C-alpha cells in the first residue's frame, strides 16, 4: 500500500453530510426558532421530506444508527400514530401548501411498518403536500424481512427507489455482524420490487468488517453487480462502540487494520468500475445513465444526511424521532428518545431537540466543503465572492492543504483546490481543512478511509 495514503488513512474526520456537523448542534435551536424558520420558507420552492422509523425486526451488530428492536408490533403502531400527528403539525407550521421534490423513508427499517400503516402515513403526506412531476420517493428496506405484500404495497404507493443494506455476502462476515442474507434472498427482494414498479434500486456495501478480505468483498461486488442495482454506496465500517453498544458484540481483533481497509476500498472501487459503474464523489457508484451519475458529470450533485443525492431543495424537513432537517436558516434535529419525542408531539409541539443556526462563514464554508465532497475540486475564491468574502478568505486552511499538496494529494492554484486521483479516498481530510470548528471539537470521528 502507498505509505503516504496509509499515514493519512489513520486520521479521523467527519463525514461532512452537513456543515457545521452534528456535534456542534445545541439547545439554542428550539421549537419557537424552528417554527420561525418554517414560517419564512418560500411557498413556491419545493422541499424534501425525510421520515424516520427507528425500529428494526432484527439487530445488526455493526449498526451505528439510533434504532429499537421491534419484537412486538404494538410499539411500532404507537409510533405510527404519533408520526401521523407530527406530519400534521409540521404541515400546519408551513406558510402554505408546498410541493415535495424528494421524499425518503429511513431508519431503522421503515418496512418494519405494516403495509397498511405505511399506506396510511403516505396518504397523510399526500393530503398535506403536493409532489413535483418527477419527485423521487425512496424507502430503505431489509431483504430478511421484506414480504411480498410489502413489496407490492411499496410499488402501489408510487415509490420510485428502494435501498438495501447488502454489506457483504461472505457467510463468516455475515455471522460476525449478525446479518445473514444469502444472495438469493436479496435477489428475490429486488425482483419483487421491480415487478411492483420500483425502477431504482440502491445497494449499500461496507468494507472494514470483521473477517472481511479483499477477495470476499470483490466477490460481493460481482454478486451485487449481477443484480444490476442502479446505485451502490461503498461505506467504511465506523467502529464506535462507545456510541453504539451493539457494536461491542463485534470481535475487535477480527477487524481489518487501516492498511487492509484501504486495500479493500480500493479493490472494491476497481471492481465496481470493471462492472460498468461510475465513481460518484467519495464512496458512491452509479450506472452511467442513472441521474446520480448525470448530476456528478454535469456539476449539480448534492450531499445531505442521506449521502450523495440529486436533491436540489434547500429545505429538508425531518419527521420522526432523531430525524435531522435543514432550512435556509440552519439545521435542526428532533428529540432522539422515542418516548420524549412522542410526549412532545402528543402535546402539540414540534419535537425539536437541538440544532444550529447559520452564523458567520457557515454557509460559505459549507458550500466549499460540499463542492469538494461532490466534485473533488472547488474554486474557493469564486464561492467566497458569491458570499461577499474577500479573495484569500480561506488562508486558514493553507497549512493542512499545504501538507496534502506536498504529498501529491491535492493541488492548490489561485484559490482553486483540486483533489488528485491519488488523494480521492482522502477527500474528507481536504474538506476538513475548511472546518473552523473541528479543532475545538471533542467529538470522536471515524477514520478517513
Question: What would you note in describing this structure?
Answer:
With 449 residues, the protein is α/β, with parallel strands linked by helices. It folds into two domains: 12-318, tm_1862 like domain (pyruvate-formate lyase- activating enzyme), CATH 3.80.30; 362-432, Arc Repressor Mutant, subunit A. The chain has helices spanning 3-9, 31-39, 74-92, 115-128, 148-156, 171-177, 183-195, 214-226, 258-274, 291-298, 338-346, 362-375, 380-386, 398-406, 427-432, and strands spanning 47-53, 55-56, 68-69, 99-107, 130-141, 161-167, 200-207, 231-236, 278-280, 284-286, 302-304, 307-309, 316-319, 324-327, 330-334, 352-357, 377-379, 410-413, 416-419. The strands form five sheets. A nine-stranded mixed beta sheet has the order 9-10-8-7-6-5-4-1-13, with helices on both faces.
